[in-house]
## 1
Amino acid sequence: MNNIQFISKTVATAAINIQKTVQLLSEDCTIPFISRYRKDVTGNLDEVVIEQIAKLQKEYETIVKRKETILKTIDEQGQLSVELKAKIDHSFDLQDIEDLYLPYKKKKRTKADVARENGLEPLAKIIVSQGNDDVDFLATQYVNEAIINEDAALQGAREIVAEWINENIYVRQQLRRLYQRKAVVTTKVVKSKKDDEAAQKFTQYFEWAEPLSKAPAHRLMAMLRAEKEGYIKLKIETDIDEAYDIIDEIIIKKQNNTTPHLQLAIEDSYKRLLQPAISNETLQDAKTKADANSIQVFANNLGQLLLAPPLGEKRILAIDPGFRSGCKIVCLDEKGDLLYNETIYPHAPQKEEAMAMKKIRSMVNSYKIDAISIGNGTASRETEFFIKKIAFDKPVQVFIVSEAGASVYSASKIAREEFPDYDVTVRGSVSIGRRLSDPLAELVKIDPKAIGVGQYQHDVDQSKLKDELDTTVVRCVNSVGVNINTASKHLLSYVSGIGEKLAENIVKYRSENGPFEDRKQLKKVPRLGEKAYQQGAAFIRISNAKNPLDNSAVHPEAYSIVEKMAKDLKLKVTELIANKEKTALIKPENYITTEIGLLTLKDIIKELEKPGLDPRKSAKVFEFDPNVKTIKDLKTGMILPGIVNNITNFGCFVDIGVKESGLVHISQLKAGFVSDVNEVVKLHQHVEVKVTEVDEDRKRIQLTMII
């Protein structure tokens, strides 16, 4: 099986599309570039499918490499038969390959090894051959200094047989199927820890049992965390008699004198070797699937957060609210640069409200502030009420912004590089302001795990999590495009084909030579060669560029085609751009070349209609219920406005203006039960909810959605 056949088993598209995509990936083309500018080559495959092909290609390469290692190891042992080599060569299932390798794998000295050293392998072969031999009598021939009697000889022989059964690939395959279908996950509390305060969130799992195949990802992850923290013991079990029956059917071919010994070997093999191995495999497989599920939830949430509506280039006054320590204020210009910082104390214990109001009014006027961004942490609602009491000379929009991760950013190397002369409080306030004007540009500076929009993100495979989150960030950044003259090096590093080092070089070149005037200037950046230019140029934007196409998603390789389109219509390129009436006259089939096909041409025409259009919506002001400030203000039956601030497999969390977010269980999202929360709500969506239950002691709020 070659790589294209391997990928084709999973990806439902023509083999030629997969082949062309793999070829592009091997030429160091990025996924955003391939999906956007090589549609005619790949058959219009989108980013998700191309990402899947890339992952499967890596998986194929991993399998091939593992097979090479295994074949070499077995060959060095002098045990690589033609039949075994053929089996390994033809298999592309890692589990089956590992099963074939198991008898030749280096392992600790086993009971079977000891029995072989004591000369008991011939007796084991007699038992396995299932002839009608009197093995009890034959065992007497194997008594020696190490084997004290015939019972010891038979025991040793059975231990060898038990190992052979354990290494039987068909036995392992059938037991795996049994566990996949019928395994039950059971938990029991560790009695010495059941009264620990931290254990109380896991009380549901103190005595629990359910079919593993039915356990949703979030529940399995909760059980695994409870076990990891030492509060429960977890087991994966299935019916032992059914397991014995499966092995009996494979191993026992006839009933005779050897049968009782075979049955004893089967029981020993299952209890001592197979059951621990297969149950562990089954749990790991379930954990891998739960990881993938949790990682996908996190990636979906992160994608929605990164593509949250930006306010745009406005002057912003940002507030990191607080009580005793005061409210940290910063004023930012349209590009997010810091103009001024101050601390005010409008709340208890200082209660300098009048002075604080005066200062805010002065800053709004002096720095021509368009909007105010308030972090949603401690004292957020109180600060919002305080700001709304101020009579400004002009309309000023007030936004509540999630400050998740702002403290992580403020103490990071990135923040220190940006603001070496300011402390963490000022940096945190700047982040709160910038994430209102452009969430994507600001949030790429923060480790996604610190943003708080996942579930069990610290329990999943960290390498896979990082890969998926990096992929999500790259997808979001390139779907929007980046203003090369204002973007930080951290944002630029996610642009297709650029990366960390080239991003640094771009920023350095910009600071030494002034703003970029056209895309061609990118080629003057040190170490930015033709390949990086090809992959990245179309994803950067230059406003007021010499060539208006430089502020669009049209790739430079297609500029000549656009020029021909304009010429054919007797227009200048500037007259064609944003002229829907004229672009409607273009017949894309007239401009097909060997490099650029119909699909790409249709994209070009769409882009000409609305060049550089930001796919994100505009930010909207949201207001919480002014009568609800803390959990004590909540009453069952209340209908309140809220913002979805986290989505999980079991429902979504909604910020209703108190410190604790309320949970809308998946069953409460709409009239019928839904399987995917994202079908109904999105992160940062403005919603109406009804309070169904309030538990002040446990700080839990149950809600139902009104849609």
Note: The mean pLDDT is 94.
## 2
Amino acid sequence: MRSLRPSAFVPPGFSVESAVHDGAMTVITVRHMSKSSRCPDCEAITERIHSRYLRRLADLPLAGRQVQLVVVARRFRCDATLCRRAIFTERFSADVLAPRARRTARLDCLVHHLGLALGGRPAASFARRLMLPVSNDTLLRVVRKRGCPPIPPPIVVGIDDWAWRRNQRYGTIICDLERRRPIRLLPDREPATAQAWLAGQPQIAIVSRDRGGGYSLAAAKALPQATQVADRWHLMENASHAFLDAVRKSIRQIRTAIGAAIIDPDLLTAAERIQYEGYLRREDANAAILARAEKGASIKEIVRETGYSRGLVRRILRGQRSDVFRTRESSLESYLPWLDAQWTAGVQNGSELWRRLKSQGFRGCLRVVSEWAGRRRRAEKADAESLRRVPSARTIARLMTTGRDTLSKSETVAIATIESGVPLLIEARAVIAAFHAMIRKKDEAQLDVWIEQARSSLVTSFANGVAKDRTAVRAAIISAWSNGQTEGQITKLKLVKRQMYGRAKLDLLEARLIGAC
């Protein structure tokens, strides 16, 4: 077995003069073995020593103890006639000890990686357990000082936005899709900012992006020769949302078909009566806005006259604001598959279901489970009364796109009634299903045919958007590239940002995200 020597614990190029234990710390005195040094100004080599002094450095821990290196440093005289520096301190290799450093290079590397992985305070707490004397501010300074490593010029990039603060401030992330790593964070999502960065990377051949028009415009101006690829996940999600919008536009016809066009306020519960009164107020606002639109007023004029927001006016004109009863997500939402399995197995007592749910981690009260059991019991009767209450548009869209073998009896009857009363929804559902199949099977030959078919259905707006972005959508169908990697890096960025309690500036976020890859 190779024997351990004191010199094995110190950086290369140094010899050990002494090693003593001072309480919880080991102090090792070392001296550089070189007889000469190079002047930092003129780079002349000299052996004339002027004086010596002691340099105290922190080093890697040893046997559970902090280690302090005491370096006997030397000052040399520069003999070059034209050199402005007469006396200089000897320099060491950059991978051993940097000028004016208080830590060895190997300890500084460890501190840097701790800062990248954990941030400030968590890394400082962990460093204390490792016997590394470093503060949280020092950790962040090291991360900022080293910054981001150099990156090779990317050929295929993905670009997307991320939230500094949701609905208020956004930034842009750019990823190298070939090397599967982020390469740049931009302070906003303005097209001009993205265009300026892309213009400095003329070698980029493929740009994968979301469906927004900002990045499309930036890529088209900065890299007109590059191929733009729309994100497949966003295409699928936009298609599903287009069908939901079609259901919302048809909610009046659905209410008529299902037998709930006329509502008796005397039969409503207190909560439903409040929603119904709000519905009547919304109907008055809808009528006023639609009347102005029929007279030829633009959206901007309607906003100025009525004081409503632009988004609200747009939704009213598109027929997306006509639900009577708006449902909220229940605390049982995540437990519904388990409850359905228990109900099918014969456990139909609300109290028993509640006791079993508590063992699954449910924190709600007995009343919530009992009401669910009562609704489920009434739903299975499928009488005429159960058809009078119209589900929300989101629920109808979900039931219409779910296999019939998974629906209850009342749900099946309700959906069959809706389909017979509103046949245009069946056509819209078939159009969206064809689009999903085209994306999954990569059948880009059907794209033009699908656009013409979709333009005559309830999803005209979505079809027009696909037609405007036809080249990028076609590339998304046939290309192997997509923005899924970028979405994953955004998830990682959110984790890093939350580790910093949301207070990290852009340079620190970028250094931690990119440096850790």
Note: Residues 2 and 410 are 80 Å apart (CA to CA).
